[in-house]
Write a structure and sequence with these properties.
Length: 129
């Protein structure tokens, strides 16, 4: 069991400079008048907002800026690259036809960061994990 994740949830990436926020579009996915997330709410910029700057050497922009600075790690603006859905989703609750997002779900960024949920956006709705 875990908390269901709603719009406004706080996200963290180990390579980001600051936490971010999950944006959930309310397309037939509201619970108690709040937009609830599912595993497909993984779109960069639309759902997963930037973490200010990225310091992953796997990010081509960071690698290029670091090379230009003669090897000194040089963070660059964050643009998450998330191709796969959040995992795992709820095994028992669906939202908008997809498994509900839980506070234990993770999303992989192409630049090596594993995005986690620090705060689900609420503390009352529990969903099966």
């Amino acid at each position: 069991m875990g908390f269901g994740v709603f719009g406004g949830a706080v996200l963290k990436c180990p390579f980001g400079a600051a936490p971010s926020v999950l944006n959930v579009l309310p397309l037939n996915k509201t619970v108690n008048m709040l937009p609830m997330a599912n595993i497909m709410d993984n779109k960069p910029i639309v759902n997963i907002l930037p973490f200010v700057t990225c310091n992953s050497a796997a990010n081509p922009a960071v690698a290029a800026a670091t090379a230009a600075a003669m090897g000194v790690l040089t963070p660059m603006p964050c643009v998450p690259v998330t191709a796969a859905p959040w995992s795992p989703g709820s095994r028992t609750v669906t939202v908008g036809g997809q498994p509900a997002l839980t506070d234990s779900s993770k999303c992989q960024c192409a630049w090596g960061g594993v995005i986690t949920i620090q705060f689900a956006g609420q503390v009352t709705v529990m969903v099966g994990g």
